[in-house]
Design goal:
The structure holds two protein chains of two kinds.
Chain A lengths: L7 H13 L5 E6 L10 E8 L2 E8 L10 E3 L34 H22 L4 H10 L6 E5 L7 E8 L4 H4 L11 E8 L12 E6 L23 H37 L4 E2 L6 E8 L2 E8 L10 E10 L7 E3 L14 H30 L1
Antiparallel strand pairs in A: 1-2, 2-3, 3-4, 5-6, 6-7, 7-8, 9-10, 10-11, 11-12, 12-13
Chain B lengths: L7 E5 H13 L4 E12 L8 H10 L3 E11 L15 H11 L5 E9 L8 H11 L6 E2 L8 E2 L3 E6 L11 E8 L4 E5 L1 E4 L39 H13 L14 H47 L4
Parallel strand pairs in B: 1-3, 1-10, 4-7
Antiparallel strand pairs in B: 2-3, 2-4, 5-6, 7-8, 8-9
The chains are: A alpha+beta, B alpha/beta.
């Protein structure tokens, strides 16, 4: 980020927003609104909302950096009026802008946070106004569930539909994984998209369902491998969710217990290979060992799939003595090795022993391959 | 309260040009107040084509046209409203009492911001909504058979395109804010110029350029130094002429046989007027330079406060 060209007061606020926000807000672009391009004083924020991003332009004035910023919402949200002024003499409720203090770096965060909450309420109201019997029913039945975000998408070239983002599982995933370094709260959501229908066919079609998780969760649990239970005819969300949550919960528990299985395997690898050079201590998905055959020394990279031990680890060999010619200079690596003898029914000691035996042979092929590459490079 | 919708917004070419110039010459973002009036116009429905006139009379019985005649701009934004968009009524009234001339009423405001989307921002919506719902600031619709109050609900938005390479250098849009629906209605902005094509407008558009109200005496306007090259004698003569006032009867003397004597007298009058104007221009130039100097100084101070140094 171009720090130099942003007024320090504004930069302090933006920086605080990016580092302290509970949602992972991103800056899309920054630019200057001055006559002579100088200080960057406006930027677009991409704010996660309802499993999508809303983009808001934050407009500061570099000439008057002490003034509070203004915000331009998306083109679809022209009727979103968070701080409605009303007539004279009306009560003027306090908000993040009315007691703006440019010297306080937390102000932008609290403004954006407050606006996001107001936006959530605004979308909820819009969805509530949709004239669709089934939607009205769904909203009333799931209202008690906390943290549901909804979004009414409409536009000239888009079909009218209502999106729900339903947070699943009340358990705190961050706490369940020992030693996790996740900065943001990991969550799994069910995205439910209802087309806003004509009344007569409303009860027939199932909504579009999709499971979405926070991106960092994929090192523990892959939602792509999860099969959603079928949506039976005439079902509603309140019926569907408990079943889904139950299945998901047991799978998450399995995923967490499989960390231990992988950890045991990596520990067992140390017997034939010696202590690992590097290993992923949190999810136990990766480990690297140093091995040698005669004078040929090489690294073995293990990457363990989530389905371990049903699926065998993928291996990559990397020579410590053979390098590609400049300008690359990278060490020569083998292809991914995945077709070696394997059975999930073996015990861990046998697994590691078999891999070690396999590699003692395979490394000769790899050595030959390395020498061939070197010959070609001459 | 029922909103009354204007059919279109008129602005003279010069006013629009000076508004655009104000926005494009400013260093940062600017805003300001728009003055003008709202007129009721009974549309001419006389037509040779009977079918067309029949439909026109039913749909367009009365038409309101908002005319922007002048604007008042501030050197910064957020002068008459709070950061959250609430009106600062005392400041606004103060501004209105000094900046508006007698005929023109406040009919709205404008905002100019570079490289932004051409749609009202959060604060602009709040300010416009507050202005539009303020009954004290309403003006009467002129020429109207019924008495209508028209709140200052006109909003002009001026921006520049995001890319510098584009052919056009500025964009603008005019809106009327409807309090009942809480929405911005885009309106066509009708630019009125002098010329044959605009003859029809002459009746409903009175162009004027009010001389800025100078509440205190301008030093040097009458002093000798200003009109250096004007001899003292001539100056006295000029003053004498001015004091006498050039009676309209005297213009009659320009006709007929005696005319030549008087042309000389008139030429002399014009001459001295030109010289006086020249001096005035010089004074304006000098004071603009000083204003600029002061503005630069202020900017430096602001930057210092904001922690640039």
């Amino acid at each position: 980020m171009a720090v130099d060209s942003m007024p320090p007061i504004i930069y302090a606020q933006l920086n605080y927003l990016l580092t302290h926000s509970p949602h992972s807000i991103k800056v899309e672009q920054m630019w200057s609104g001055s006559k002579n391009p100088g200080f960057l004083d406006r930027f677009t924020l991409a704010i996660p909302f309802c499993l999508d991003y809303i983009k808001w332009d934050v407009i500061y004035n570099a000439q008057f950096p002490l003034l509070a910023p203004d915000i331009i919402f998306g083109p679809e949200d022209e009727s979103f009026r968070p701080y409605h002024a009303g007539g004279e003499g009306d009560l003027k409720p306090k908000n993040s802008l009315s007691d703006w203090n440019c010297k306080d770096p937390t102000k932008l965060l609290s403004l954006i946070h407050e606006l996001r909450n107001l936006y959530m309420a605004y979308q909820k109201k819009r969805v509530g106004n949709v004239d669709d019997e089934r939607l009205k029913f769904e909203i009333n039945t799931i209202y008690s569930q906390e943290g549901i975000e909804m979004y009414m998408s409409s536009g000239f070239d888009k079909p009218e539909e209502v999106k729900f983002a339903v947070p699943l599982l009340e358990m705190d995933l961050n706490k369940m994984v020992a030693g996790s370094t996740w900065r943001h709260q990991q969550k799994i959501y069910l995205q439910v998209i209802y087309p806003v229908g004509r009344k007569f066919s409303a009860m027939s079609s199932a909504p579009r369902l999709k499971l979405v998780s926070t991106p960092e969760l994929k090192s523990l649990f892959s939602i792509d491998d999860f099969r959603l239970p079928p949506w039976l005819e005439g079902m509603c969300m309140a019926e569907y969710l408990p079943n889904l949550e139950e299945i998901l919960q047991s799978q998450i528990r399995d995923a967490i217990s499989s960390i231990e299985v992988r950890r045991k395997f990596i520990t067992a690898l140390a017997i034939p290979f010696g202590r690992p050079l590097e290993a992923d201590p949190v999810f136990c998905r990766k480990a690297t060992f140093l091995a040698c055959s005669g004078v040929f020394t090489f690294l073995v990279h293990f990457s363990l799939p989530l389905q371990f031990p049903r699926q065998q680890p993928a291996l990559i060999l990397q020579s410590s003595q053979h390098f590609h010619s400049p300008p690359g200079n990278a060490p020569i690596k083998s292809a991914i090795l995945q077709d070696y003898p394997w059975s999930p029914r073996w015990d861990v000691a046998e697994m590691t022993e078999r891999i070690f035996e396999y590699l003692m042979e395979e490394c000769l092929n790899f050595k030959k391959y390395c020498n061939e590459v070197l010959l070609q490079q001459r | 309260m029922d909103d009354i919708s204007v059919q279109k917004i008129q602005i003279s070419g010069t006013t629009l040009a000076s508004l655009i110039q104000r926005v494009s010459s400013s260093v940062g973002d600017v805003d300001g107040l728009l003055f003008g009036r709202v007129t009721h116009i009974t549309p001419l429905t006389l037509s040779d084509d009977s079918s067309a006139s029949a439909s026109a009379t039913t749909s367009d019985q009365s038409t309101l046209i908002a005319t922007v005649t002048s604007f008042y701009s501030f050197t910064s934004t957020s002068t008459f409203y709070s950061p959250s968009g609430h009106l600062d009524t005392p400041t606004l009234n103060n501004l209105l009492s000094t900046s508006s001339s007698s005929d023109d009423r406040l009919i709205g405001w404008f905002s100019g911001r570079r490289k932004t989307h051409l749609r009202p921002s959060m604060r602009e919506s709040s300010v416009t909504s507050a202005l539009a719902s303020n009954t004290q600031l309403s003006s009467q619709v002129q020429n109207s058979p019924k008495s209508h109050a028209f709140p200052p609900c006109i909003f002009f938005l001026l921006t520049t395109p995001f890319q510098d390479q584009l052919i056009h250098t500025h964009e603008y849009k005019a809106f009327q804010f409807q309090s009942s629906t809480d929405s911005f209605d885009p309106k066509t902005l009708d630019v009125v110029n002098l010329g044959p094509a605009f003859r029809g407008h002459y009746s409903d558009f009175t162009p004027k350029s009010p001389f800025p109200d100078l509440p205190f005496e301008v030093k040097g306007l009458n002093c000798e130094s200003m009109v250096e090259d004007l001899g003292k004698k001539e100056n006295e003569k000029f003053e004498k002429l001015c004091d006498q006032g050039l009676k309209i009867e005297r213009l009659k003397n320009l006709m007929g046989s005696q005319a030549s004597n008087y042309t000389a007298e008139l030429e002399e009058l014009y001459n001295s007027m030109l010289k006086k104007l020249n001096g005035l221009a010089k004074l304006v130039e000098q004071s603009s330079a000083r204003v600029l100097e002061q503005e630069n100084h202020n900017m430096k101070l602001r930057y210092k406060v904001a922690g640039f140094e």
